[in-house]
Amino acid sequence: MNIYDIAEEAGVSIATVSRVLHNSDKVSKSTKEKVMAIIDRNDYHPNVFAQGLGSDSMHTIGILVPDIADQYMASAFSSLEKLLVAYGYDCILGCSGYDAKDKEKHLKLLLEKRIDAIILVGSTYAGSEDPTHNTDYILAAAGEKPVFIINGIIEGKNIYCTATYDKKAVFEVTDKLINKGRKNILFLTDSQSYSANQKKKGYEEALKKASIDPDPELILHTQNNVHTVLDLLSEKDLDFDAVIATDDGMAIGALKYALKKGLRVPEDLDIVGYNNSSICEVSAPELTSIDNKVDKVCSITIDRLLRVLNGETDVPVCEMIECDLVHRETC
Fold it and tell me: How far apart are alpha carbons 81 and 85 in whole angstroms?
């Protein structure tokens, strides 16, 4: 039996069961007795960590993002906050930036607050393929509080990860473009994070499958900024017939470049973005984009967070989500 079964049998919300388990005074005596009777009857026992929260729990979750101005991060935080509030939790937001020392410093600052768990939003916290990239501070934090990572994977005790199949998604899109006849596919990325590297692998593996050698000139590292991409492509004047960008902002920059050059999209140039953000539908033409299901990822994260805080011991440490290609007008 888990917290959901208890809530269903008692006819109350999961948040109410959580409050009972944490001895909150916000629950009526009759409701508390009813829930406790079900818990006792089914021999439901919170784990040692959850029991340790006890009355010291503030029903507060720390959320750390590298950049709240980033549309993906902002969407994720908004989704997480709404879910947490619905379950009776408050949240504290920290913005760490991307520098390794700053990320560690801000994580330590959150740990100094009276929080029950930490959510790290973004694969920047999961390191990269660089062996010098340090994630030890996250492993250490997990020794104090449960750590939940969105869109990144770190193996360690008390760490729970939810990520999307980024490599598979980009592989399938690249393969689709190749089958359409595109041979010179430009790949735009803005980081060396875990997620960015997975996307690049998908791109390169699809080229390899088609016996196409990756052209280093067609793999561009740039800023996730429309005008930066526009200026970069204008300066380089490369020969390409399709674009895959690891974020919608860069894809819009490529779209502006195409329109500036008088290219027809998608007749002359296919463009695919990533994240399926709101800007996809306000661009002209509307942007085709890979949907990495940010709301679903956040929902699964909160679901597992509640299960961990309420004592369940069989919570999956890693869950992977499939992405979808949302067809619009640029591909």
Answer: 6
